[in-house]
Amino acid sequence: MTVTADVGKNPLRLAILECDPLIEPIRAKYGSYGGVVTAFFNAGAEVLGLEKEQLDFTSWDVQNDTRYPNLDQIDAIVITESRLSAFEDVPWITALADFTKKALSKEHVRIIGLCFGHQIIGRALGVVGKTNSLGYEMSVCSVDLTPPGQHLFGQTELAVHQMHHDIITSYPTNVLPLGSSAVCSTQGMLISRKLITLQGHPEFNGEIMLQLLNASDELGFEDKALWEDAVRRAKEPHDAALIAATFLRFLQGGFDEQWLKMS
Hints:
Structural class: alpha/beta
Order of helices and strands: EHHEEHEHEEHEEEEEHHHH
Helix content: 25-40%
Largest sheet: 9 strands, mixed
Strand content: 15-25%
């Protein structure tokens, strides 16, 4: 797929809403989830031929701090991973869902959700979540893309890291579903010029995934066969750079829904 850049002189202002601390081996390299997400978008910028100066990142620890970015001073929010459920009635999660609703009402603000962030956006749009009776998705997995998803990403499926047991049970109204898998039918969604999400973790790489899998093993993850298979797939090729570039294209101009529905 050929991707091109079309940006103005002003940098894109991305506020990263950090919803969990990193475990120590990953923290030593990236500092916080903001560092992981920044590295992910920088890889997409390289694909598009953008300079790093064209992206302006700020990070906000919304789990431990009540301060949020001023929506009039940013172009987009990125909602990260969390080990907690997006549907818990925990004060900081409720506050995050409320802030997401405010962002949805701001015409100029675009929203990206990754895993927990995908589910928070679902919550803000009125759908419910649950623990998936079909089990976990872990490590590099294949997502079958819908026709709009195929048009968006330029291929029929995505290889993307996963680490989740919770799901949203249905898509909100007025979104374009982007994909599904054998374990999870709600793998991503888009509203043109407003939001784009993935249930997976395109911001992860094999090194990060192996660290997380090792931590889950130390905590006593019970399904040893699933864990061993996830370890085997952790270093498989995945589409992080393509996804990051597509997200940046979304932030630059969005995608016309009629164009996306062509197949």
